[in-house]
Design brief:
With 601 residues, this protein is an alpha/beta fold. The protein folds into 2 domains: 27-226 and 285-297, Rossmann fold (3-Layer(aba) Sandwich); 348-583, Nucleotidyltransferase, domain 5 (2-Layer Sandwich), CATH 3.30.420.240. It has 19 helices and 27 strands. Strands 3, 4, 5, 6, 7, 8, 9, 10, 14 and 15 form a 10-stranded mixed β-sheet that branches. It is globular.
Length: 601
């Protein structure tokens, strides 16, 4: 009888034990126990092993007492994987309406296909959590999934109307600085409004910063408790945030870069970084702020092999002479906003003094390709020819004005003759214009531009239309071009103007000028400046015309730069063709056609 009682007590104990909820894990522990990285997502597949600086970020995301988490991040620190792990934890343990906001629809699809679906499929606890993109009910799509107790919707910031239909308790935002203010307002602010009905909402925002004066993520971080990751010195053990000013290297040998402790001056080599990072800790520099955890991190603490101090120093040396590449380094490696002297005018007279004795009729030997940018005015066509080298600077070869109304066929016939011209080349042959971009943005001349460009697409003469916004690609084909009967391209004028401005102010001959260019051309090239204006309460950066200046030369250069990105040049073959013009002009051999006997029966 005693054995029976003991057995009943054991059964009761086990039954009660089975009802006990599992121990509550921090989000970092849960991720390391449950999230698997598959091949194709990580070079180290298997269970996630968080780096020391990732753990507190994860735990802040999982802490119900913290409403908002901001992360100023570089590349190479695994934030996207961390964000996906947090998403999985909400789906598995704390289901709710979840909204993920990314800059573009392409970003949304890539995140779902390249990150969420592979990681969820590889993690047993999440394998069937989101179901198929197209289920029998028809309620699931690739960017909208339902699961027991909640839903996941991934929305592009460029389409803010999509935010109207959604409410969310959890809002996840990636690359916040890649989102521009729309006609309906700042997309992140619109997304946050969708969370107002939840008292226990969670907002997680991460981004690489862009420009210092307009960065959303830097403003958000400034409102947080502003945590920094400090590591102990290998020698004196004093904790410091590793910053770029503490990375040094022997003259001319950046690959041998090392860290210098600000406290004791000790030189610390790369081999001690792992120990330093493992002993690191986050410190809040504004601890009085409650409920908003902010983290600022740079790639100097990354443990990836391609983020060693030597590799980063080598990248810096290669990038520092060009403002465009330097900004990439400052933004993506140091996770700092890039500072520009907004509103300053470029000295056109100083540019004119850099003119050199070359031009279309005296072509520099290194020029192996030419593009043309054409600006259409009411009484003329303005044309600038740009020369391109394999690795060197861009060359402004010459400027032309074709007088005549765009409605007259003779105006376009003269342009056609110019675009057919071939110029003598020092290597022995002649060189022609490889691609041309002609502005069709003026509604009054649009049809004339289409009429000229569409039949000449084989010669890479294309109609283009400029569009604003710093996140646009330099050039992309318009989705409406087929309906118009030809090829229309959209040009991101703001990023190209930014690119040109960086070249003009970067020195080192980033752009070379022909002495055939008139003084007015330089004045037009420097006709705009980047300024910061407030739009719907948010600071935005844009280019503004300097009063009293014309901008035809700048527009032509923008279009010529865009045309360059439509070319895929074999530089070696082009140089060889110029050295052997008789081969370039020889008729191509007709391909041999082998006809199968069964075609004729």
């Amino acid at each position: 009888m005693l054995d029976a009682c003991d057995t009943l007590e054991e059964v009761e104990r086990r039954a009660l034990e089975s009802l006990r909820p599992p121990p509550r894990l921090t989000l970092s522990d849960w991720v390391e126990h449950n999230i698997y990285l598959p091949h194709g997502v990580s070079s180290l597949p298997g269970l996630v092993q968080l780096w020391p600086f990732q753990r507190e970020i994860a735990d802040a995301i999982g802490d119900p007492a913290i409403e908002r988490v901001t992360l100023v991040k570089p590349v190479r620190v695994g934030f996207t994987t961390l964000l996906t792990g947090a998403l999985g934890a909400f789906v598995a343990n704390d289901p709710a309406p979840i909204l993920a906001l990314l800059p573009t629809e392409a970003d949304c699809r890539d995140y779902m296909v390249s990150e969420i679906e592979p990681i969820f499929s590889a993690s047993p606890v999440l394998a069937d959590a989101l179901g198929e993109a197209k289920d029998e009910s028809g309620r699931n799509t690739i960017l909208s999934r339902r699961f027991p107790g909640g839903s996941l919707k991934i929305v592009a910031a460029k389409a803010p109307r999509n935010l109207r239909r959604h409410t969310a308790r959890v809002l996840l935002v990636d690359e916040a600085d890649g989102m521009e203010v729309t006609a309906e307002g700042p997309p992140i602010a619109l997304a946050e409004k969708r969370t107002l009905s939840f008292a226990d909402r969670k907002i997680v925002i991460g981004s690489t910063p862009t420009f210092e004066g307009t960065s959303y993520i830097l403003r958000s971080y400034s409102l947080s408790d502003r945590r920094i990751f400090e590591t102990p010195c290998f020698d004196c053990r004093a904790p410091h945030e590793i910053v770029w000013s503490d990375i040094q290297w022997p003259e001319g040998r950046p690959a041998e870069a090392y860290y210098v402790c600000p406290s004791c001056g000790c030189v610390v080599s790369e081999r001690h970084k792992l120990e330093m990072v493992n002993g690191g800790a986050w410190r809040a520099t504004a601890p009085e702020v409650i409920g908003h955890a902010g983290f600022r991190l740079n790639a100097l603490v990354s443990l990836l092999p391609n983020a060693s101090w030597g590799k980063l120093a080598t990248e810096f040396v290669a990038a520092k002479s060009d403002r465009t590449t330097l900004q990439v380094f400052v933004n993506t490696i140091l996770a700092e906003g890039f500072r520009v002297d907004g509103g300053e005018e470029i000295d056109d007279e100083a540019l004119a003094k850099r003119a050199e004795p070359f031009g279309c009729e005296a072509m520099p030997e290194e020029v192996l390709a030419i593009t043309a940018g054409v600006d259409v005015q009411r009484d003329r066509l303005e044309v600038t020819l740009l020369g391109w080298t394999e690795a060197g600077p861009m060359l402004a070869l010459g400027a032309f004005v074709i007088w005549g109304r765009p409605e007259d066929d003779s105006t376009w016939a003269e342009l056609d003759d110019l675009l057919k011209r071939r110029f003598p080349h020092p290597l022995g042959g002649t060189i022609g214009i490889d691609a041309t971009a002609i502005d069709s943005g003026d509604g009054e001349t649009m049809e004339q531009v289409y009429k000229f460009c569409f039949p000449r697409a084989a010669r890479k003469i294309f109609a283009i239309k400029g569009d604003g916004g710093f996140r646009r690609p330099f050039i992309e084909r318009s989705s409406s071009s087929k309906a118009r009967g030809g090829m229309l391209f959209i040009v991101g004028v703001d990023p190209i103007k930014d690119h040109i401005t960086a070249k003009l102010t970067g020195g080192n001959g980033a752009i070379r000028f022909s002495d055939t260019l008139p003084a007015s051309w330089y004045e037009q090239l420097c006709s705009e400046r980047a300024i910061i204006r407030y739009s719907r309460g948010q600071p935005t950066r844009r280019f503004e015309r300097i009063p009293g200046r014309r901008a035809e030369a700048l527009d032509c250069v923008v279009y010529g730069v865009a045309a360059r990105y439509l070319l895929n040049i074999n530089w070696a073959a082009r140089a060889e063709a110029l050295r052997s013009p008789e081969l370039a002009l020889a008729p191509a051999m007709r391909p041999r056609v082998i006809r199968s006997s069964w075609i004729d029966g």
